């Protein structure tokens, strides 16, 4: 008999609702987003310019569950429920008494968790009469998910991709084009926001904040286009909770429960997706879980940013959110986990960190690649550079368990595969991947861009 390592549910077990942590949040309600134009809390009218009605309900609602529309569930069922594995081979390699589990989202057609929300947003935009989607992407995972989602609903897709990633990962663009999308490196000359950045710095590597400004501007100029977003927003985090809801049931199949839940945090959506259903259970009287948000040391939003109202985009086109932020002018160094290069983070993640329900840590990228390689050689899956952040901390925790002689259950989110990220692995093996040291002056200058409210 082999050790049971794979915990797989049936098609019928695809969740029927998305979970909304706002329903179980202790203390004051989540601080509202503010209008960039008036500084007042963002009303439904202004939100209606950004998203269809059902998404507004999910963005500001406090009910515990939102029903997943059947057409969305049908598409989810093409690859969901996603498998949950026990990492027996990694455990043995680490000689740890810890029980390590991972939930693998790389089984989606786009290779990450991002289609969980892409499909939902495409569905609602199509229902609202939009014929195309426009968005920004960092590493290209969200752009790929948007392109896929648009294709499934017969819509066009326009994707502004952060230039440094566009150059590092040419095949992400090819994938988007195969799905029928148009992918443009950002900053571009197609928008006023992009032209302004290029005028100041013709060699700008771009950033998620800049690409967001370009996408928002494009959407605002064409009513047939729906703007969709890949992370951070409350409704996006809710859509991702299919991950954690499935994981709760799969841990039951494993006859276990995690002491620790770990996820890489960019905008916070895969971490929230995995961890919020466990956190919600804890807040309603269930077992305590230690939740760890792992971010790159070169974009240390949670560990070195501060909590303030700030813009999500560099061009200050969109609303302000109360969140941990490094300042909307922050342009992170060109590290290889492109999906983790955001100056801000989802307000719900920020709030749970503030309330000490989630613990943030920052890790250097070479240590992450080291963990990613060890994972590939033991478990066989080539992880996305973003996901290696979660693996790094899972390994560190498993080693701590060994040193303390404790057997804890560790569950981490393997948010995607790294098949399009081999240039980064190649650099790691060549020894040319470096750990950027952030200059205090750079952090202080970005911090100064946070508006005084
Ligand atoms: C986008 C992405 C992330 C980071 O985004 P979150 O919204 O924080 O989840 C992490 N891993 C992968 C594979 C991604 O594509």
From TrEMBL:
Q: Name one GO cellular component term.
A: cytoplasm
Q: Which UniProt keywords apply?
A: Amino-acid biosynthesis, Aromatic amino acid biosynthesis, Lyase, Pyridoxal phosphate, Tryptophan biosynthesis
UniProt superkingdom: Bacteria
Question: Would the keyword Lyase be found if you checked this record's keyword annotation?
Answer: yes
Task: Please state the pathway this protein functions in, per its UniProt record.
Answer: Amino-acid biosynthesis; L-tryptophan biosynthesis; L-tryptophan from chorismate: step 5/5
EC number annotated for this UniProt entry: 4.2.1.20
Q: Name one GO molecular function term.
A: pyridoxal phosphate binding
Q: Which cofactor does it need?
A: pyridoxal 5'-phosphate
> What region holds the Tryptophan synthase beta chain-like PALP domain?
79-416
Per its record, the protein catalyses:
(1S,2R)-1-C-(indol-3-yl)glycerol 3-phosphate + L-serine = D-glyceraldehyde 3-phosphate + L-tryptophan + H2O
- Its top-level enzyme class, in one word, is lyase
Description of how the protein assembles with itself and partners: Tetramer of two alpha and two beta chains.
The UniProt function text for this chain reads: The beta subunit is responsible for the synthesis of L-tryptophan from indole and L-serine.
- Supply the name of the protein: tryptophan synthase
Highest lineage ranks of the organism?
Answer: Bacteria, Bacillati, Actinomycetota, Actinomycetes, Kitasatosporales
